[in-house]
């Protein structure tokens, strides 16, 4: 199909292969996200809504405007539209068991035990870690820092309000201790209790940006189900940077399909998709 042809006759907005190629390049440049050929329909569906809101009919017009305004807030809207945010409370639960065991052994007197959820999406992963730390460490100080590139997700996460179904799989003790059930207009919703929410701090980080804010080291880092969107060199570079933010005896958790063998010498496996730093401090 030539660049001039639209991809599907059913589409009401003009989206050529050249437009798709541009979207792919821009997503890669700004977020490190690799959109394969098969993502054509996904890209159309996600950005078409935005074009309609802006009263635009051609993707080329939207992309021209975007590129002509490097500082425009529209870049964030563009990136937000292209991220995939699927998550759940206690997703891949074995990591939370390991976290509990690690926190019990490694929490140091006088020092907060710190966790970083590095692609936290709408916050479920971060709140899950915070629940585990509340249960395990009780009065011992602990903090969960949670970041994502997607500002819309960060807003949802900070609000801490979810459809009730999202916590249905949690044991009643956790539901009662950490969540409030919505009534009246909030019926069908649940809110993370203030005591738990106060321990979780959300902020924006683009993992592929040249600069990350000063963050210190963490006892555990969750960087799960985000590496899959990046190419190998990007994954390798991020892993090196994560290593610099992990405490010497800390744990790194990756997603179930993220294999870092051959990508880095910085980590050695300690369990299912769980790693510690290689070298003398970690051994
Ligand atoms: C599938 S979700 C994973 C959520 C959670 N970690 C989990 O495993 O359930 C992937 C998240 O990565 C975020 N993301 C994508 N590219 C990113 C980047 N360059 N920097 C930071 N976060 C990014 C997306 O916004 C999305 O919320």
UniProtKB/TrEMBL annotation:
Stretches assigned to the CheR-type methyltransferase domain: 8-280
EC number from the UniProt entry: 2.1.1.80
Gene3D superfamilies given in the database record: Chemotaxis receptor methyltransferase CheR, N-terminal domain, Vaccinia Virus protein VP39
Keywords tagged on the record: Methyltransferase, S-adenosyl-L-methionine, Transferase
Reaction catalyzed: L-glutamyl-[protein] + S-adenosyl-L-methionine = [protein]-L-glutamate 5-O-methyl ester + S-adenosyl-L-homocysteine
InterPro entries (UniProt xref): Bact_Chemotaxis_MeTrfase, Chemotaxis_MeTrfase_CheR, CheR_C, CheR_MeTrfase, CheR_N, CheR_N_sf, SAM-dependent_MTases_sf
Function field: Methylation of the membrane-bound methyl-accepting chemotaxis proteins (MCP) to form gamma-glutamyl methyl ester residues in MCP.
Protein name, UniProt field: Chemotaxis protein methyltransferase
Species this chain originates from: Crenobacter cavernae
């Amino acid at each position: 199909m030539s660049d001039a042809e639209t991809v599907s006759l059913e589409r009401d907005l003009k989206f050529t292969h050249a437009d798709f190629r541009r979207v792919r390049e821009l997503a890669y440049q700004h977020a490190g996200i690799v959109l394969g050929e098969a993502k054509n329909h996904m890209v159309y569906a996600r950005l078409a809504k935005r074009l309609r809101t802006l009263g635009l009919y051609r993707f080329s017009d939207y992309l021209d405007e975007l590129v002509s305004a490097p500082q425009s807030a529209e870049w964030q809207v563009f990136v937000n539209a292209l991220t995939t945010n699927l998550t759940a409370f206690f997703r891949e639960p074995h990591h939370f068991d390991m976290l509990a065991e690690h926190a019990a052994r490694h929490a140091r007197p006088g020092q907060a035990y710190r966790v970083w959820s590095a692609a936290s999406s709408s916050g479920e992963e971060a709140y899950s870690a915070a629940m585990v730390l509340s249960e395990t460490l009780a009065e011992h100080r602990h903090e969960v820092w949670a970041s994502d590139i997607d500002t819309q997700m960060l807003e949802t996460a900070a609000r801490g309000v979810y459809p009730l179904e999202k916590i249905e799989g949690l044991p009643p003790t956790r539901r009662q201790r950490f969540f409030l059930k919505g009534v009246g207009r909030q019926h069908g919703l649940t809110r993370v209790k203030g005591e738990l929410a106060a321990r979780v701090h959300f902020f924006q980080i683009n993992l592929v940006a040249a600069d990350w804010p000063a963050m210190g080291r963490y006892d555990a880092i969750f960087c799960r189900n985000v590496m899959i969107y990046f190419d190998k060199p990007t994954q390798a570079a991020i892993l090196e940077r994560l290593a610099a933010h992990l405490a010497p005896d800390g744990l790194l958790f990756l997603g179930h399909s993220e294999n870092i063998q051959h990508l880095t010498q910085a980590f050695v496996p300690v369990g299912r998709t769980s790693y510690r730093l290689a070298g003398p401090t970690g051994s």
